[in-house]
Amino acid sequence: MSTDVEPYAAAAADAASRELAVSFIARTPGQRPAPVEGVELVKTIVVQAKDRFVLVLTPVDAQFSWAKLRAHLGVNKLSLPDADGAFAATGYVRGTITPLGAAGSWPVVVDARLAGRRIAIGSGSAEFGALVSADELVSAYSAAVVELAAE
Questions:
Q1: Would strands 39-49 and 118-122 be described as parallel, antiparallel, or unpaired?
Q2: Domain YbaK/aminoacyl-tRNA synthetase-associated, which positions (predicted)?
Q3: I need a surface site. Which of 52, 61, 93, 132 has the fewest CB within 10 A?
């Protein structure tokens, strides 16, 4: 009996349950995925606001405004959990974190700069990235689209 399971199985199952079209691309663990024409590389940042977590998607090389994020969330203070805290909140290790299949059903905030773009995000696996439409991800996760560009 085979117990082979794709390393991104949780992400794929969650995407399918939300009718979110996603494709998975191989990547070298510890490195950014190879550039794909027309695809924006995105990082998912786990942010703690009081007793809840929020998953923030922003362009990988872009700075974002913490003040704008705090204002959107209606809080005065945000923090970044340590690696163990991020794992406990999502079920994924840093570098693989994604809303796809993440534990906790945390709110998702998508940087407005990603609107209308095809994006590469984590898949829960260091060996694969996930390609999705940012707009479809926003719809599938009822994500907030927020202007987060740093001033």
A1: parallel
A2: 35-133
A3: 61
List average pLDDT for each run of 10 residues in the chain, which is 151 residues long.
67 97 89 80 94 95 94 96 95 95 94 97 94 98 96 76
Distant-in-sequence, close-in-space partners of 48: CB < 8 Å, separation ≥ 6? 54, 78, 79, 80, 81, 85, 89
Q: Which among 145, 139, 149, 127 has a CA at the least distance from the CA of 20?
A: 139
Q: Which helix (H) or strand (E) holds 66?
A: helix 66-73
Domains of the chain as residue ranges with CATH: 9-146 (3.90.960.10)
Q: Tokens in use for 58?
A: 């922003």
Contact between 96 and 126 under an 8 Å Cβ cutoff? The reply is yes
Only one residue has tokens 């199952």, namely 13
